[in-house]
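Annual report, structural modelling task.

Input specification for the nicotinamide-adenine-dinucleotide complex:
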Amino acid sequence: MAERVVLITGAASGFGAGAAQAFAAQGARLVLCDIDEQGLIGLAETLRDSGAQVLARRIDVTDETAQSALIAATLAHFGQLDVAINNAGLGQPFTPLSKTEAKDFDRIVAVNARGVFLGMKHQIPPMQAAGSGVILNIASAAGLTGAGHLAAYAAAKHAVVGLTRAAADELARHNIRVNALCPAFAETPLFAEMADRFASHTGEDAAQSRSRITARVPMGRVATVAEVVQAMLWTCDPANSFMTGQALAIDGGLTAI
Ligand SMILES: NC(=O)c1ccc[n+]([C@@H]2O[C@H](COP(=O)([O-])OP(=O)(O)OC[C@H]3O[C@@H](n4cnc5c(N)ncnc54)[C@H](O)[C@@H]3O)[C@@H](O)[C@H]2O)c1
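The model returned the following structure:
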């Protein structure tokens, strides 16, 4: 990864922040964006203090003008874009489909699916011009199987898998690999919020609700951020040169049963 330019959306927290640290440790130059400006500034300062080159921008991934401007800023600053990780995402309150508000559906799909579409739309041209590139989209186990009471989230994450496969087909002859990772239940703020929402939905306390979640996972636990980040590194590694169009579960066996 040395000297490669790696763009990460949703970089201020969770998998995005973990990936930023891991790619920086491998010598990558980073383009980090998030809607959370304070979190982003704090992370960028920490990474620069440890010697990394970082371009950080506050953007909302649903805003096409902002996504386009981010790529222009990347090319102006670093002159190239080698790897793009579309990771920004929003969870959803546990709600029966019949009680889900259309505006909530629209926002969840806008961030989780439209954000990935817009990201790829503007990341692809410089990669095509360079004749190579890697795109990794962070979907979810809910992009591979049904997830009751999370219909909007599951619909958005299935869309991410569909976008990934379509783009992989289009871009394989351009030497651009496009894959998706499908984690389930990893210790990030998004998961903590979803677990709390699950507890309010079932009327259990937080500990009961968490043990009910982990009991569904064959490995009997949730993932660490580091376990997901190592899969992000491996998927994007130049040595992983023949894998494209895949949606890989990192889920302790959840989708195997
Ligand atoms: N943690 C899990 O258990 C889990 C499981 C499956 C999939 N995922 C997916 O992994 C990805 C990362 O999630 P995480 O768990 O690290 O969550 P997180 O909440 O820790 O991080 C998500 C980041 O995305 C940013 N973001 C949200 N909306 C945005 C927007 N409109 N524009 C720009 N940035 C925005 C947030 O500010 C935050 O920094 C998400 O796509 C999520 O759906 C997470």
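Residues 55 and 253 are 37 Å apart (CA to CA).
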